[in-house]
Structure formats: structure tokens, C-alpha cells
Amino acid sequence: MRCCRVSRRVTPPDTLAGETAHFRALEALYAAAPVNRLFDSRLEIVAAGIARIHFRIDERHFHAAGAAHGTTYFKMLDDAAFYAANSLVTDRFLLTTAFNLLLTRPLGPGPVVAEGRWVSGKRRVFIADAHLTDAGGEEAARGTGTFMKSRIALASLPGYAPA
After folding, report:
1. pTM of the model as a whole
2. Longest Cα pair distance anywhere in the chain, in angstroms?
3. What per-residue confidence (pLDDT) applies to 7?
4. In the chain, count of helices (H) and strands (E)?
């Protein structure tokens, strides 16, 4: 009787180093985007397919009724879902093709976190979702988006520089 050995796939260390470099380069790309000068925010790519945007809301983001405007929700959720998806793509910049929001409660001033997660797709179109929580851990919004590979090489963008 022959016994078969179960093979386990192990990611080579150089691949892990390349993945980490890609994550840090995406974080630098986020920081370098001119629009992000308008926000007190920081991108953190936790793992492949998972991204967090740490954001501080203040009165500059409020609508007339004294809570965060919907554009602020969109920005955080779209960015978190986008970067979760783009963390799986090392050669091209993705583009948002659709994004749906569900706003569940108003946000006042303070820290919030948008966490994005890749859902499906690995070739041309990706689906990712995100949820937004306030400092107390309460969910304030969630969204789902579709993202498509563009013709724009990541390496051609200012700020994207893998180590």
C-alpha cells in the first residue's frame, strides 16, 4: 500500500516581501493623492483584500444640520473598498465603476474607521464592500462597489514606489 503525502502550499518569503512592499506603496499612493490633503486620514492595508481608512471628522465635513455630509461617508467607504481590491492587483490602478451606500446613522466629530474587504473577482472586475464605524464601535454606514482594472500602470503614478 502506497501512502501519499499531503502537500501544503507555502508562500515563499520573497513573495511575502513583495506583497508587503505593494501594500506600503499603495499606502504611500493614498497619502500622495491631492484630494487627501483635504482630509485628516490614513490608509492601512492590513492584509491582501483588507484595507482600513482611519479618518477624523470635524465641523468642516458637516452639512447644515450639524452632522457629517454624505460625501464624507462616500469618500471613506469608497477608498476602503477600493484599496482592499487594489491590494490584490500589483500592476494596474483600479477604477470605481459603481458604488452603493447605505447610511444608517449620523456621524458627529471624532475618529471613524472605514474597513474594506474584497468580496470577489480576480481578473478584470472586482467587488468589495466596506463598513464605517465610529469611535464607540457603532456602525454608521456600509457600501458595496465594483472596481475595474484600468490601463494606468501603478508604477507610473506619483507616490507609488514599492521598496
Report:
1. 0.88
2. 77
3. 39
4. 2, 6
